[in-house]
Amino acid sequence: MSNVDQPLTLQIDMSTEGAGREYLCCDYNRDGQSWRSWYSNTYNPPLETDSDPVMPLGALRELELQANDAFETYLKLYYDTGYTSTYMWDLEEGSSNALPNSFAGVVLFKKELDGPVDAEASGTLGAWDSIHVFEVGVQETSAGAQTARYKLSSSVMLTLKRRDSASVGEVDLSGSLTRQTEETLPVAGATGHVVNLGRLIEDVESRVRNQLQEIYFGKMVDVVGHLRSTENLEASRNAKKLQEELVAGWER
């Protein structure tokens, strides 16, 4: 979480399981210059034979696959098109194939805005990158039920570039927001983690979208409105001159 977030990149998984599909890359699925694909649970390019790669096994790997399927649906509902990848890792040493009581992961979303093909043409380019890093700790209650403490750190990076080949040139608007939240929720089985994480991420992204709309774009509209007048300059000067003449007449 202490690393500086960077825009997400794409890699292609050419393995049998990957079937040439694209997956998102960040620091959390990277080992040196290799990145792990959630499709095949392998690194590309392959790691050295003596390395000890970080990858989920057993129940945690199954949970990772379930989460990817769930957030694929989330992507279609909220972004229509784009990319998503979810990666998980164990925080317990020597755990068995059972789901560990302490694990972490990251949920990634990337949405790109297609711009003009011609580099000299006018148009808008943009990208939305969401990085949701989470940590989960499961505890038993006195009644025998389970609760999970979720720590979520969400970063959203928004990039917008507007090119006007005729006069203005290129305008680059880029910004980011980071929000952190913690919540304890009841959980029943491994699928319950996917449900809880989905709700938490949905709430955070909704708040971030509203804040970007109200603060980021709203403030920009206010600034532009103060800098650029929509009224005719000559008409404003004539009105000011007439006002000065009327005030001078009243004073006389």
Order of helices and strands: EEEEEHEEEEEHH
Low-confidence stretches: none
Give the integer mean of the pLDDT values: 86
Structural class: alpha+beta
- Let me know the CATH homologous superfamily: F-actin capping protein, beta subunit
Tell me the radius of gyration. 26 Å
DSSP summary: helix tally: 3
Strand adjacency order, main sheet: 6-7-8-9-10
Largest sheet: 5 strands, antiparallel
Shape: elongated
CATH topology: Aspartate Aminotransferase, domain 1
Strand content: 35-45%
Fold topology:
Elements: E1 9-13, E2 21-25, E3 30-31, E4 34-37, E5 42-44, H1 58-78, E6 83-90, E7 102-113, E8 123-140, E9 146-164, E10 169-186, H2 189-227, H3 233-251
Antiparallel strand pairs: 1-2, 3-4, 4-5, 6-7, 7-8, 8-9, 9-10
Helix pairs in contact: 1-2
Short description:
Keywords: Actin capping, Actin-binding, Cytoplasm, Cytoskeleton. It is built from three helices and ten strands; from the N terminus they run βββββαβββββαα.
Give your account of this protein's structure.
It is found in: Cytoplasm, Cytoskeleton. This is F-actin-capping protein subunit beta. InterPro entries: CapZ_alpha/beta, CapZ_alpha/beta_2, CAPZB, CAPZB_N, F-actin_capping_bsu_CS. The protein is an alpha+beta fold and 252 residues long. The chain has a single domain (9-251), classed as Aspartate Aminotransferase, domain 1 (Alpha-Beta Complex). It has 3 helices and 10 strands. It has helices at residues 58-78, 189-227, 233-251, and strands spanning 9-13, 21-25, 30-31, 34-37, 42-44, 83-90, 102-113, 123-140, 146-164, 169-186. The strands form 3 sheets. A 5-stranded antiparallel beta sheet has the order 6-7-8-9-10. A 3-stranded antiparallel beta sheet has the order 3-4-5, with no helix packed on it. Helix 1 packs parallel to helix 2 (189-227). The longest helix has 39 residues, at 189-227. It is elongated, with a radius of gyration of 26 Å. It starts with 8 loop residues before the first strand and ends with a helix. The model has no long low-confidence stretch (mean pLDDT 86).
